[in-house]
Amino acid sequence: xxxxxxxxxxxxxxxxxxxxxxxxxxxxxxxxxxxxxxxxxxxxxxxxxxxxxxxxxxxxxxxxxxxxxxxxxxxxxxxxxxxxxxxxxxxxxxxxxxxxxxxxxxxxxxxxxxxxxxxxxxxxxxxxxxxxxxxxxxxxxxxxxxxxxxxxxxxxxxxxxxxxxxxxxxxxxxxxxxxxxxxxxxxxxxxxxxxxxxxxxxxxxxxxxxxxxxxxxxxxxxxxxxxxxxxxxxxxxxxxxxxxxxxxxxxxxxxxxxxxxxxxxxxxxxxxxxxxxxxxxxxxxxxxxxxxxxxxxxxxxxxxxxxxxxxxxxxxxxxxxxxxxxxxxxxxxxxxxxxxxxxxxxxxxxxxxxxxxxxxxxxxxxxxxxxxxxxxxxxxxxxxxxxxxxxxxxxxxxxxxxxxxxxxxx
Amino acid sequence: xxxxxxxxxxxxxxxxxxxxxxxxxxxxxxxxxxxxxxxxxxxxxxxxxxxxxxxxxxxxxxxxxxxxxxxxxxxxxxxxxxxxxxxxxxxxxxxxxxxxxxxxxxxxxxxxxxxxxxxxxxxxxxxxxxxxxxxxxxxxxxxxxxxxxxxxxxxxxxxxxxxxxxxxxxxxxxxxxxxxxxxxxxxxxxxxxxxxxxxxxxxxxxxxxxxxxxxxxxxxxxxxxxxxxxxxxxxxxxxxxxxxxxxxxxxxxxxxxxxxxxxxxxxxxxxxxxxxxxxxxxxxxxxxxxxxxxxxxxxxxxxxxxxxxxxxxxxxxxxxxxxxxxxxxxxxxxxxxxxxxxxxxxxxxxxxxxxxxxxxxxxxxxxxxxxxxxxxxxxxxx
Lengths: 410, 382
Fold this sequence. Notes:
By secondary structure, chain A is of the alpha/beta class. Chain A has 15 helices and nine strands. The radius of gyration of chain A is 24 Å and the shape is globular. Chain B has helices at 3-19, 46-49, 57-70, 89-98, 114-121, 137-143, 148-166, 186-196, 226-246, 257-263, 302-306, 309-319, 338-351, 356-381, and strands spanning 28-32, 75-79, 102-107, 127-131, 171-178, 200-205, 249-250, 278-281, 286-288, 295-296.
């Protein structure tokens, strides 16, 4: 089984900003050449990947970025670019459009003050103008935000900005210390336990407003885990797809199981020595992945496979909603409520699908991947005694007959 | 418990679970009387979690009044901390006994001297359980405290002596926790406690985290590792064989489930929680079945606590729980299926030596009960 779904290229370590929560630009690394990246893209396509993500550093600092995007598109891959937006003027936006980039992800951390504090003076205005330019050239844009102590109060503003510039998705991810050189600094981004109710309230409003404005976000269950994560709690999702379906590649060609498990002793190999095709199918990778799965990973709350942290469309949620609908006495009210409920569910589903189709390939592929999970859910419902009450009624009738027969036989 | 009563209760548990309504009262009430304890056992966090709490005897008496009025066949298990550290423990037990309740107690045995053993034997308890975690002194003492092993064995001896002296008294049992430290000694515990004078031995798997019953992390200290599983299987074979010939051991469930449990392979089909069977009252008065508390007996009566929305929520969580924990809240497997409940009732009725008229009356009562529940189910469907 090839199983590769998406490849994340950190195509350069260079960056034009010096953000507080990221020390990536500190390291100087010899980058892979254009031809080497092209070989990787070709291999990704051969391995059945659907999406390649060009990230960095700042990927637009590489002059060959448009050529690489074009090459990815030629190989039937979805091309996503993550950028801080500072370099996206009209000309760059038009070139991105011409090269065929599917989605451009711009980082917005909050209000101008917050954003500039975290990413550097003037960066907010440039990011906002990038969003406007991309809209002008009809490139789908998404907004990403790294939630930390500094900006959680600004999340609703991020949503507003996204709505204003027509971004389809706002993707939140809590701050993670892996991008810091000195992990002792991590404390300044974490929150105090007493702040949890406040941030939870903001997330509630965030979800409500995102539904009103029809902007996709991460699954609600994932979002509600953010406050606890920011107080230092670790999450170890059971079926995280990052190890099985994705492949991060460093700017010098190192391949790791996932960004979190990117320590030196977990290196799968380097593109300069072996091809991605060979490394992905290698025994070494298989063993490494199995050892991580068996021994448990370091835990994270990265948004790459946020669906594994739980979907909002859980059985309990739907039953709960259905019960609320049931309680309403008037028939008219009931139908209206039911219709409203169904409508809101459809809108949510649509938003989720759009979110996945932009990030994770086509909806068909998403369904292929999700169907086994859905079947498992049905199996679990059956196992947990979710018998049909009608069947039990007929069983009761049968048992009553049996009791009557016993009475007559005496 | 008479079979008619058991039939009625099983039916109530079945429909409570199906309709998610508290139609049944709990079968087990674990009453933790005090946070205080003589030991600081490695696997137990009660002392730290519930620091400073102790239920007043009047609150306990009120609780006993209430549950005695239910007329439900249930058992109150007094736990702690160490319940025998309380001065009024016998007043409480005797009050419950006078109310006609079945009361059991669990102790680590540290305080059970000959005098105390005499009082325990004559107090009206149905069962007194002593915790023992190893057949070797070193194992038990390493988990609990130095000298704990000898005190526990002395406690069993004292209780057995007192019981033979008085000629009657509670069943003297031993509770052993299955954990990595003692997995090789499980069978030897039987021989040891038999010699000491115990009449029953119950094993139960370790709870890794008191706050989180579903925590079955293979990384936890007391959890059995892969290489311990084989040893556990061998021990179970020996225990099952011993039980076949000599009794003494009481299984709360199929012991081979332990293997699956520690391997993390136990499925919902094999182990089904019935959230209505078990309730725990803490020394702070908090009431919980599993997970977070849903009421406090110092504010509401226990019956009211069980009817709160929070209780509904907690039970729903338990019902949907995907990690079986092999604890007492397990539903009676016979009560999992309606057909089983009726068949068992008919079988017991046929075996009973009563006249045909009484049998007919019992069957009619069963039919009447079943019709009641049928009506309720129909009501829920509409």
